[in-house]
Amino acid sequence: MLRKLGKSLWVEIVLIKRSLFILLFMLSALAILFSIMWQRLDHQDVGGALTATAAIVQIGIFAFLVLGFILSVREKRVSSDEVFQVIHSAPGIKLISKGSLLFILGLFFIVIAWISEVVLLFMQNIDPVFYWKSLLYFVLYYWIPFFLSGLIGLLLGTFMRSRLVYILLVVIGIFIGPLNMLILENVMVVFNWDLTRVLSILNLGQSDIAAAFDPLYGYPLEFSRWMVKLVWLLLLVGVLIVVASWSNNHRFTQKAVISASISWLLASTACIAASFPDQVPVTVMTTENSYIKEEQQATPIAEDIFAMNPEFKITSYEADVSTFRKLKVSATINIELNAPLDRLDFTLYRNFKVTSVQNQTGEKIDFKQEGDHVSVLLKEEYPAGSTEKFQFAYSGISSPYFYANEQAVLLPGYFPWLPVEGKYPVAVMRENGFLRHTPPPARDSVPYTLHYSGPGKTYSNLQQGNGATYTGTSSSGLTLISGMIGETTEKDKKLVYPLALAGGVKAAAPAFVNRFDQMLSRIEEDLDLAVTSKGKDDSILFLPIPLESNKYWETIWHSDHQWIVSVHNGYEGKWVFEQQAASPSAVILSLLRTKETIKKETFLDGFCATYSYWYSKRYSEQPENTLQFLINDYQNSNWSVEVATLENVRNFIDNSSEQEVQRFFGTWLEMLETNTGDYKDLNDML
């Protein structure tokens, strides 16, 4: 049997080698693919080198559909199939050998494509981790889709001979290709159909082709995507077995029925595995934004969202964390009460569903979870000064902005992925639909113990101990980053960055750190803020955290000895880190917004924008547009007092001495820290 199959496969290979059209098509596709990868990698766009090739995948799916059909009907066109019908098992062997040929052709294509990608990656000095990551990408989004498409065409050819089948192949190619959503978008609008879920399952090629490449997360290679492809493969293999058996005997043999049944049973199992909830970063930010907006409309957010005064404090954390497909946490928390309480309110991101809360004796405690808040209902009132230990067990899909699964983890300390004392909004909706995440309540440094072993390299603001255990203290939450990340050191600062951005970060690191240190020193001098000493041994994390305003060039968070600087999803050139990162407005905002006493956010925005304007004038730097953006935004909101005040401040800066302006900002900062005054008072002061 195997010998006959081998000979039949060899005949198919010999025949396909004579097809000049197929050879030219594959060479042309490879040439176009190489050109795209070359252009993208020449600009250090590691992600786009592959994710921008959806059209190649779509054309390849069409081509293999047609090729499979042609292979199936080739003998019928010359009537040689009548000869094979009288040879024992010949029709079935021919069918399987043709399927094997499609398998080999797809393999040949991705091997050549992958070798080309590796050569280009090597020439651009890009980290070797992308060698095998790109191989997985080619297997998942090229080889498997091409092979499955070929099988579909092959099976259609066994049942249909009409030329109308080519129309059917085109329709099938549209539905199972990566451009199905783009092509059928107008159809869905006309008929008011939402076929998003169906089309994503049918799509054999790249998913979410419009989504920007996330440099930390990397290529979309999640477990669920492999399971979907496995379902397709097992279903088609089962059909192929049945069709081959029928071709041989015009009946279904027992062996064929058993084999096909096993294949379909495994497909059902894979389908169940693929259907489980999964953290897959796709373009679903609008869902998150809509929820925050609706919550905010139902319960208006007070201006003093920065100031939280919980009646108890957390004194230590110990957490066991796993991230396969979603976040799963068992967190033990020690607390100390500041007042008599029979109820403890915590903030925890709403998608993390709490399954149990236990006290230190292991007794289950009643709790209520609503939105982003969890209330632990004590059986009796605990006196002030008492201490207690609670264990929270919870799991779920993280925010689309902050992911956690088997591929990568992005959980900054300011995001409440661990329970935080008090009730506060996780994020608030600000101008033009931007979400601004709320800093957690100010607290003293708290001891943390983390047990975690995740994908790729791991970074935390704790110190790594034995194996996968991390310990340390933090006053601003626990940051956990895992995936394709790298580290370098510049002037005693640790720089942590996605490996996809390694070229830009390393090239610009000296200039960036020099500018960053200089900016901190100037801010300290201008505003009498003790920030320089904090910056000497800090870590700077370049991460794809979301932008939170259309007025600030980037988002920066500062906590303890850690700075998180946003890098946009996509790829970053050297100029971004030299010119755009660490803008004065974003740096000063990061230093002030976590201060416990500062409550008025819009007042703080005005301070940051006008200080940035003065900074650029005083130090002869190219000015940001932050102040003008803020004025325009307030004009659109009909905030006449705020607009007039900011314009008067700008005029004051333009026409006053440095000493006068410095005293003015010192007074404004005092108003912010003491929560006294507003824009009207500031305008009167001018």
TrEMBL record:
<feature type="transmembrane region" description="Helical">
    <location>
        <begin position="101"/>
        <end position="123"/>
    </location>
</feature>
<feature type="transmembrane region" description="Helical">
    <location>
        <begin position="256"/>
        <end position="276"/>
    </location>
</feature>
<feature type="transmembrane region" description="Helical">
    <location>
        <begin position="226"/>
        <end position="244"/>
    </location>
</feature>
<keyword id="KW-1133">Transmembrane helix</keyword>
<feature type="transmembrane region" description="Helical">
    <location>
        <begin position="135"/>
        <end position="157"/>
    </location>
</feature>
<feature type="transmembrane region" description="Helical">
    <location>
        <begin position="20"/>
        <end position="38"/>
    </location>
</feature>
<keyword id="KW-0812">Transmembrane</keyword>
<protein>
    <recommendedName>
        <fullName>ABC transporter permease</fullName>
    </recommendedName>
</protein>
<keyword id="KW-0472">Membrane</keyword>
<feature type="transmembrane region" description="Helical">
    <location>
        <begin position="50"/>
        <end position="71"/>
    </location>
</feature>
<feature type="transmembrane region" description="Helical">
    <location>
        <begin position="164"/>
        <end position="184"/>
    </location>
</feature>
